[in-house]
Amino acid sequence: AQSVTQLDSQVPVFEEAPVELRCNYSSSVSVYLFWYVQYPNQGLQLLLKYLSGSTLVKGINGFEAEFNKSQTSFHLRKPSVHISDTAEYFCAAYSGNTPLVFGKGTRLSVIA
Amino acid sequence: EPEVTQTPSHQVTQMGQEVILRCVPISNHLYFYWYRQILGQKVEFLVSFYNNEISEKSEIFDDQFSVERPDGSNFTLKIRSTKLEDSAMYFCASSSRLRNTGELFFGEGSRLTVL
Q1: If we measure between CA atoms, which residue out of B111, B114, B115 comes closest to residue B8?
Q2: Nearest CA-CA distance, residue B46 and chain A, Å
Q3: Distance (Å, rounded) from C-alpha A48 to C-alpha A27?
Q4: Nearest CA to A76 among A1, A4, A2?
Q5: Residues of chain B with C-beta less than 8 angstroms from the C-beta of A104
Q6: Nearest chain A alpha carbon to B111
Q7: What is the pLDDT of residue A21?
Q8: Which is nearest to A90 in space by CA: A100, A98, A99?
């Protein structure tokens, strides 16, 4: 069965600094990968997705992620974060035979 | 832009009471899901629903839970007799599955607090 690992439960970072949130998935023949963001007291919003094609995926709010098949990773990056990026970020994977599976989430705290 | 809507946004109930959480999926979507998130923990799959029947359910989805599509628009999750550990955020999601990529569209969630 598909599994998703987010190694960092919390990531504090200063405003305007770069950030990387790590995500690894269990190996699969074909996998679709997603990052969702949850702002305080809100629902899950799709940030970006990898379905096929270019391994570098750009999403909303300046975020991007790179699909690395050999390392089974899909790390999320932003070159310069803002206070408004403070949220919980969830990596999720789908491989066709189980429902969408989420990681435990990473809480990004941007410090002024 | 079409969206999934959920009601109520927050419900407080006493242990042992029945709770119904409601969802209106995106209108042309055919697949419906419930996920839950206990405070501070991961988002967990509960159940998927297609063509008026459950297509898959997790071990969390025991006999206390049921889902229903009572009309052409609503999709409900019922918890028959709530327990303290049912306190969580419950997310409804839908998909069209035109391309089976697993992409789900989530609602804003219903926070259930069981006292």
Answers
A1: B111
A2: 10
A3: 20
A4: A4
A5: 41-42
A6: A41
A7: 98
A8: A100
Under 8 Å between Cβ of B33 and B90:
no
Contacts of B6 in chain A (CB under 8 A): 43
**pLDDT of res. B90:** 97
> Rounded to whole angstroms, how far apart are CA atoms B92 and B112?
13
Amino acid at site B4: V
- Tokens standing for A50? 């990898």
pLDDT in tens, chain B (115 residues): 678 999 999 999 999 999 999 999 998 898 999 999 998 888 999 999 988 899 999 999 999 999 999 887 899 999 999 999 999 999 999 998 755 677 899 999 999 999 9
Separate counts of helices (H) and strands (E) for chain B: 0, 11
A30-57 burial by CB neighbour count: b if 16+ within 10 A, else e? ebbbbbbbbeeeebbbbbbbbbeeeeeb
